[in-house]
UniProtKB/TrEMBL annotation:
Name of the protein in question: Adenosine kinase
Record domain Carbohydrate kinase PfkB: where: 95-358
Protein source organism: Azorhizobium oxalatiphilum
Similarity comment: Belongs to the carbohydrate kinase PfkB family.
Keywords: Kinase, Transferase
One Pfam family named in its UniProt record: PfkB
Length: 374
């Protein structure tokens, strides 16, 4: 069982970070004081985690770096492609495995396997892949009631090439997923969720962006928490200014990112300076650091936890998604940030030990075996 590396309250020495100086615009005020739309006394949640994102079927295949170069794919990236390109890459790929995926959907499934009450909102077409997606997520005990589209683009797919080092390079055809609109939101579901978790990739299509903002408004109106995952450094490059505005205007309360995304967000190679700025810009954040574990940061706290060791990294697809699942499951159970980080690290360690972005082991049993949960 991993040992907590450190908890630092009101101390910035954890990461060599100087103390934050409050100012008239960004001092350590309560969220309700900064956001008049948040209720001060929310009713009990009927759902622990609601995730909203792209509903995608993953097609995962092995590839070497020569194949990536020949296809013009930056290693480790996520590239948006059209249906014709998706068909061309699929034809060039080796034999693949089809698994229902999508970042936020993976997080919902992971949290559900840890015993959290979860739901997912995302759009698919009423076609073979769409029906497979709906079946799989419901079978994982995640509530899913978004109406399937009867016409329009086909169900989204992500063609994932995994190199021998376990790194994944993704080519995503958004298809029906990009047609998510505010009409697909279930306001009562959003109001009842302790945390609404939004996928950064969803920020690409304008109608989905409107749904994103509407969901955040509904959640805050019910006194709930809104989380955002930055998803990918290339996604951050596209929407840096908008993501920062979401954080600084308190549209989101909790941000998830890795170090590459963090450095992209603040356009710096210095992680420590980026962390200082992050703590000024958002109420709290989780920063994953691969084999070096993860950080939880807030204006008055820095908490660190180590990674869980794995014998062999097979496929990093879904590592961030499952880390978020573990952390959110812990947070909604009322666990402290340190334990929630460790639950996230445990969940991520399971998913990188095999091909595919969803757990093969029961994470609740695994957490009990390691003593994280009773």
């Amino acid at each position: 069982m991993a040992v907590l590396a450190g908890v630092f309250l009101d101390r910035e020495a954890a990461c060599g970070l100087p103390a934050l100086a409050g100012d008239a615009n960004r001092g350590p005020k309560s969220f309700s004081a900064q956001n008049p739309f948040r209720s001060r006394a929310p009713v009990s949640a009927t759902l622990d985690v609601l995730t909203i994102g792209n509903a995608i079927v993953d097609v995962i295949a092995r590839a070497d770096e020569a194949f990536l170069a020949a296809q013009g794919m930056p290693k480790g990236s996520m590239t948006l492609i059209d249906e014709a390109k998706a068909e061309a890459i699929y034809a060039a790929m080796g034999a693949g495995t089809e698994i229902s995926g999508g970042s936020a959907a993976n997080t919902a499934v992971g949290a559900a396997t840890l015993g959290a009450r979860t739901a997912f909102i995302g759009k698919v077409r009423e076609d073979k892949l769409g029906q497979s997606f709906a079946h799989d997520i419901r079978a994982a005990k995640v509530a899913y009631a978004t109406p399937l589209a009867s016409d329009g683009p086909t169900t989204a797919r992500c063609l994932i090439l995994v190199t021998p080092d376990g790194e994944r390079t993704m080519n995503t055809y958004l298809g029906a997923a990009q047609n998510l609109t505010t009409a697909d939101l279930d306001a009562e579901l959003v109001k009842g969720a302790a945390i609404t978790y939004l996928e950064g990739y969803l920020w690409d299509p304008p109608p989905a962006k409107e749904a994103f903002l509407a969901a955040a408004g509904i959640a805050h109106g019910a006194g709930r928490e809104v989380a955002l995952t930055l998803s990918d450094s290339f996604c951050v490059d596209r929407y840096r200014a908008e993501f920062l505005e979401l954080m600084r205007k308190n549209v989101v309360d909790l941000v998830f990112c890795n170090e590459a995304e963090l450095k992209s967000l603040y356009e710096t190679a210095d992680v420590d300076s980026a962390l200082i700025q992050l703590r000024r810009d958002v109420a709290s954040a989780v920063v994953t650091r691969s084999e070096r574990g993860a950080l939880f940061v807030a204006k008055d706290a820095v908490v660190t936890a180590p990674a869980y060791p794995v014998d062999r990294v097979v496929d990093t697809t879904g590592a961030g998604d499952l880390f978020a699942a573990g952390f959110l499951a812990g947070r909604t159970r009322g666990l402290d940030p340190a334990t929630s980080l460790r639950l996230g690290a445990l969940s991520a360690s399971e998913v990188i030990s095999h091909v595919g972005a969803r757990p093969e082991r029961n994470l609740l049993d695994l957490a009990r075996e390691t003593g994280l949960l009773a």
